[in-house]
Amino acid sequence: MEDEVFEHVVSVFGTLVSWVAAGAIMFGGVVPYIPQYRDIRQTQKAEGFSTYVCLVLLVANILRILFRFGRYYEMPLLWQSIIMIGTMLVMLNLCTNVRMATDLNTKRRSFLATDSKDEEVRIPKRLFLDFDWTYFWSWSRFMDYVQCVLAFTLVAAYITYLLLDSALFVETLGFLAVFTEAMLGTPQLYCNYQNKSTEGMR
Hints:
Helix content: 55-70%
Radius of gyration: 21 Å
Strand content: under 5%
Distance between the termini: 54 Å
Shape: globular
Structural class: mainly alpha
Mean pLDDT: 83
């Protein structure tokens, strides 16, 4: 009887530990960005945070999700990628709003052509391939970032669909996901170097 109770307690404890570990995996990656989000929102300054960090994490996690179609991995890792993508989009939205609120005279830039009739924010019409590479990932509207992410996702998904039977492609996809995420610190390091300061970075 005591052995059964002990085994039951061990089983419950093991399940609880598994849940806690899964939760840590899914949400642990976004925790460092909570104080960064609060700091940007309170100070209304986003200069100290490189939005290219968001680009790196978006690309890495989109590739990781596509990698799962060729090589199965645990569900918490999939949710980690989904949650991270959502977090980076939230960060981009905040940074874009703050930047445009503080730089009212900045020329409006877009990823795609637009038919916006907003008198305050007039964005010149451009064709898909006419956007200025000089201002890549420095656009004036959050929707431009969303369009870029969707375009990348659709192209990457189509290529993955075509080459999913290739073991070499699947392994390369996984490597690119890991390698891209490993380069996460590079854009922030460059941003700090340009600013000659770490002010604004949590």
